[in-house]
Specification:
Length: about 300
């Protein structure tokens, strides 16, 4: 894994994304309702324009907000800007215009290490472990800001993923893709420590307060998926906020709030084409993902009736 250090000579400074002059106009009433609902959000992004090369925007006015104790799912076609949105939130993609706030504080284009210290944990889809280090050493990296708590947090994550504890001395580079995904998720959880169960919506203290996950089900077995859903429930029930990109319909249906990016890919994407609850999405059936989700929900309902 290559190291990228963002300092005074930030390579992102050469990338200036510009708004698309041909972008469709947003209904003022829809925008007004969105802004009202976003009030008080823990993590919020407004009207983001961002991309990887000068003059080419991947995000074309994307919005996102996540309230405390809420699971937000980001969906959309491949290339619609989902991963770019998460990277922009986490300071890994230069934002040309727009604003990101964390608990009301402006953190637009803030460095990733600073965001970690402020309570945001990011689990990327790829290049997400240190291959030359052992499983235990990777987990220690998750506790670099609180090394005295490693023993407690190591027990917490290995209770969730026992195989990681059994193979603690194995190098991460020898793991399969799914095993690496479990290790990176465990490392991020080690940063925040065990969630303390409180009433949903109550404020939790210390550690990671917002988890940002890019397709965490990639490579997971069915048992791991069920465990992941239970873990997401524990996190939000303890007051943590979780933002997840996911194609797996079980996770999409499990979310409190859905943001659908599109309508297409590349320069034709990067806009919010739908936001609402999973049931709202099924009812609207305004996107391809909505059609798939409606079919999934119908299938699950038939299975329950047949039991």
């Amino acid at each position: 894994m290559s190291d990228i250090v963002l300092g005074e000579n930030d390579p992102r400074d050469d990338i200036v994304a510009e708004a698309d002059p041909n972008a469709p106009k947003v209904d003022p009433e829809v925008r007004k309702a969105h802004l009202a609902a976003a009030e008080g959000a823990v993590l919020r992004a407004d009207d983001l324009i961002a991309g990887y090369i000068p003059g080419v925007s991947i995000l074309n006015g994307a919005d996102l907000y996540c309230q405390e104790g809420e699971l937000v799912g980001i969906i959309g076609p491949n290339g619609a800007g989902k991963s770019t949105l998460l990277k922009a939130l986490f300071g890994l993609v230069k934002i040309g215009t727009g604003k990101v706030t964390l608990r009301g504080d402006d953190v637009t284009n803030e460095r990733a290490d600073v965001l970690v210290s402020k309570g945001i944990g990011f689990v990327p889809q790829t290049n997400n472990v240190f291959p030359s280090l052992t499983i235990e050493e990777n987990l220690q990296m998750g506790c670099y800001q609180a090394p005295s708590k490693f023993t407690e947090r190591f027990k917490f994550v290995t209770d969730l993923f026992p195989a990681l504890g059994d193979r603690r001395n194995q190098r991460a580079g020898s793991l399969s893709g799914g095993e690496r995904q479990r290790l990176k998720l465990a490392t991020s959880l080690a940063e925040g420590g065990p969630p303390s169960l409180t009433a949903r919506g109550s404020r939790s203290s210390g550690g990671t307060s917002v988890y940002v996950l890019d397709e965490p089900t990639t490579g997971l077995h069915l048992a791991d998926l069920e465990q992941l859903l239970g873990l997401l429930d524990r996190l939000v029930d303890s007051g943590k906020s979780v933002i997840v990109i996911e194609h797996h319909l079980s996770v999409v249906a499990h979310a409190d709030w859905i943001i659908d990016l599109g309508p297409g890919a590349g320069h034709d994407g990067g806009r919010v084409v739908f936001e609402g609850t999973p049931s709202d999405l099924v009812e609207a059936r305004s996107t391809l993902t909505a059609e798939y989700l409606a079919a999934f929900v119908s299938s699950m309902a038939k299975r329950l009736v047949s039991r």
